[in-house]
Amino acid sequence: MEDGGGGGEGERNRTSPSSSSSRLRVRADPFLVVCRCFSVITALTAILCIVVNVLSAIRSFTDGSDIFDGIFRCYAVIIAFFVVVAETEWAFVLKFWKVLEYWVGRGMLQIFVAVMTRAFPDYTGANDALVLLQNIASYMLLACGVLYVISGILCIGFLKRARQQKEISRDQAIKDLEELERRREELEYLLIEERA
């Protein structure tokens, strides 16, 4: 009887860590979720700037009216692409461009792309939709850039990196705990087989 009661407790203890680990895994840091959402919004805004600048460059080259505007738009597309890549926080890029690891640097780059997107608007009225799209894209990216600069000055980026490191450590600890739990179950099974 006591062995049966002890076995029930052992099984409850055995399932308890796995249920607590799944609970830990599901619960994400709300601060990091907000940061990821902001990164997605910034990346989408930078992609909108890329589209607007590509359309403007095509218009400039096909009309032949302003070749320099087309060249300027091509540079804006390239730099906006770096903004998108910086938001993915790809380690390969951040290794070579350390300034993009810091939020103030990212914000300044975003502000620069926003200004480039806003520069040389066509106020002749020939393409009002494109001018409106340029204004929307540039002001949205400008707002993201200003938020990045302010957040960088307030050391929010440092806080984000610290929490990311903590989350990575916690995930690794959960994986290690699950591995130990699996090994313990295997050893218990072998011990039970050996006794039988």
TrEMBL record:
Residues 163-190 form a coiled coil. The chain crosses the membrane at residues 31-58, 70-92, 99-116, 136-159. Keywords: Coiled coil, Membrane, Transmembrane, Transmembrane helix. The keyword Membrane applies. Residues 1-22 are annotated as: Disordered. It comes from the Eukaryota. The keyword Transcription does not apply. PANTHER family: OS07G0118300 PROTEIN. This is Putative golgi apparatus membrane protein TVP15. It comes from Rosa chinensis.
